[in-house]
Write a sequence for this structure.
């Protein structure tokens, strides 16, 4: 999924936007990492059968990103 599709299919609520902005600031995520987190959050929401990305999906995706950075 390229950047255009990420913007189309990975829309966020205001609460999710704030969570993501905080993660970008604290973790120093790049634009590429930002898109990876969104794609992963979309996948997690899809697995749970949810039409929209929720704060829990985004938080889980961010946690995986933190684990990936430690390795």
């Amino acid at each position: 999924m390229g950047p255009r599709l990420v913007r189309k299919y990975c829309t966020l609520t205001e609460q999710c936007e704030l969570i993501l902005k905080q993660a970008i600031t604290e973790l120093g995520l790049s634009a590429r990492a930002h898109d990876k987190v969104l794609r992963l959050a979309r996948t997690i929401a899809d697995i749970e059968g949810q039409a929209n990305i929720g704060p829990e999906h985004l938080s889980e995706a961010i946690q995986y990103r933190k684990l990936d950075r430690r390795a």
Remarks:
- Residues 30-71 form one domain.
- The first helix runs from residue 3 to 9.
- Helices lie at 3-9, 14-27, 31-47, 55-70.
- The chain has a mean pLDDT of 90.
